[in-house]
Amino acid sequence: MSRPTGNVRLKAARLAAGFNSQQDLAAALTRHAQDMGLRGMSIGVRQVRRWESDSPPWPQPDCQRVLVHLLGQSMEALGFAPPWGSDDTQHTDLTWRVLLAEGPVAQSAGLLRRRAVAPQPPTAGADFQAVTRSHRRLYWSVAPPQLHPAVVAHARLGCALLPDATDSTRRTVAAALAETYLLAGRIEFFDLREPSAANDTYLLALQAAGEADDSLLGSAILAHMAFVPGWVGDRDGALERMTAARTYARRTSASAEFLAWLDAVEAECETRCGSTRTALHLIGHAEDVLAAGNEHSSPEWMDWFSPARLAAFKGNTQMIAGHLPQARESLLQALAAMTPAENKQRSVVYGDLAVVEAASGDPQRSCEYAGKALDQLAVTWYATGMDRVREVRRALASYHQERCVRDLDDRLYDWSTTLNALSR
After folding, report:
1. Secondary structure of 184-200 in the HEC alphabet?
2. Residue 418 pLDDT
């Protein structure tokens, strides 16, 4: 006789509560969320299926509250394991009982703070945050395979600290943990080309942001999550996540730069999905938002966007749309405006310029830009930049007999570059 598989605890609780199917539970959770005052929250059967799988993800804070209220059991009793480790049985029992007793207003502040026997000192939050800041700066100069393990290890430390932190220290640790997971996800997606792993890491980042009750950080994480479906042409999936990102941004004081970045992210997703006209409209709106500005400043962790990056976004979309003279102008403008701190992105812009010149019938100029991209990649590796160089070579297919293209092949497929690319 075969043993049952999946999260049998949640399945048993579902059946005991009278919900014979995953669809029944999903509909009941959605209705219960509305009754609790969590407007706009919708839980689908796909989510319930993931919760009943062999490795159920730790639900977001609002979902936790609805599950606990509806089924009358703690998260651990329902088969879930928090990413920062389980507390003792007495604390777990107390947590879910308080969640059952509290109303939606009190719950919105986050999960019950654990009262540890020996709580972390107030300095723990600042100390943990200091390392997070250092990793953020190191991202732009350290090779991703070397930095990623350190970032993940730092996240594990944050998960260990979080249950023993209270009040403002807990919020500081949770926010820094969210940023750490966001950085790990960025490395996995943009540098290591592991979108599935990145998506799971972004979910951990979002959960930590919920613990910190940081809507702006939550918005940034959700926008990064939109890249995952967007880059494979899943427009509906990308737009759903962008809608969530914009909703979170409206709950707080977002800077003009942050709002323009949201436009740029959605524009890149639209471009990847073949809607360049919509993308260019979004980029135009982003330029207007930046020009108008507002009274809010950007958070220190937002170091991945600038007017130069927006120009690079624009040039890439114009290139894909076939607007070659405009693309060349935008990309050259981006190069001129980039600071030394943005050198990692230069390989991408050089690659796009190379594609523009190849499409314009100038293989010599195209190869020169591709060579500059390879020069930059030798200094700071970036998988997205290497992808652009490969696009250049495909664009130069009809010129394969040209001397400059053969020279490019010699560089693209020399021992160092080949091993470097394949090993990553």
Report:
1. HHHHHHHHCCCHHHHHH
2. 63
CA distance linking residue 262 with residue 273, whole number of Å: 17
Burial of 192 (0-12, 13-18, 19+ CB in 10 A): middle
Mean pLDDT per 10-residue segment, the chain (424 residues): 71 85 91 78 88 87 83 84 56 37 34 52 94 96 91 93 89 96 96 89 92 95 96 94 95 96 97 96 97 95 95 96 97 94 91 96 96 91 89 93 93 71 54
131-136 long-range CB contacts below 8 Å, 24 or more apart?
132/176, 132/179, 132/180, 132/183, 133/300, 135/180, 135/183, 136/179, 136/183, 136/301, 136/303
pLDDT at position 366, please? Answer: 96
> Token pair of 44, please?
């689908």
**How many residues does this entry show for the chain?**
424
What residues have CB less than 8 Å from 191, skipping those under 6 apart?
Answer: 144, 148, 381, 382, 383, 384, 424
Question: Is the CB of residue 382 less than 8 Å from the CB of residue 141?
Answer: no
Residue type, 8: V
Q: CA geometry: angle at 407 spanning 406 and 412, to 5°? A: 95
Q: Tokens at residue 304, please?
A: 């991945």
CA distance 252 to 408: 49
Helix (H, G, I), strand (E, B) or coil at 20: coil
Domain ranges of the chain: 8-82, 129-213
Residue 178: name the closest of 223, 211, 131 by CA: 211
